[in-house]
Design a protein that fits this description.
single chain, 222 residues, alpha+beta, Glucose Permease (Domain IIA), eight-stranded antiparallel sheet, three-stranded antiparallel sheet, 17% helix, elongated
Amino acid sequence: MLITRDGWKEIVVLTAGCAAATAAAAVWFWPLAVIPLLICGWGLWFFRDPPRAIPDDPNMLLAPADGKVVAVERVEQNEWTGAPSLRIDIFLSIFDAHINRSPCAGAVQQVIRKAGRYLNAMRPEAASRNCANTLVLHPGNGLPGPVVVRQIVGAIARRIVCHARPGDTLEAGQRFGMIKFGSRTELYVPISDDWQMLVRSGQKVRAGSTPLVRWNGSTVRP
């Protein structure tokens, strides 16, 4: 099992704490030693970085996160592009892998960090009120854009990691960051009848592996 480099600090702290708790439990009441061992095991599982088979179809946009699709909605004005967009919301539980991956090949135009609150990521207002990081991509392969990915914290999540910088070029399915603990990730694509929806609300998806939409229109040149 691969572990993301972004989790080693937390793993070291968690392991040290669990080791101390296990030693204390072994002295006072040994059955309790199982609890810190389970917590330590969950910590390792949370920071896993599973390999993914990236679909070889440049006309598809892939899931930017593991989790469950909780909404597919039209947004009349995308605040980062000023145009109508289709928004796909993905909720990540504490049991999902939290690595974020690029939905398509493209150039990073903007990376925008926003301070905010730590509301439960399942609440609709969490998208506008919670701490977030927004990645604006100009897609390659002639797809329409910009494509926007938002990393949004939840009630437990306290840190967003984003390694992408303006000017970087990402490949489809490439890792660019993670959200530490329960959270939400959104994908915005330009409104068009030529997008074929490939997922529905309630469906489980996997970052870099599950296609969300496919472009069936004419090729749009950059």
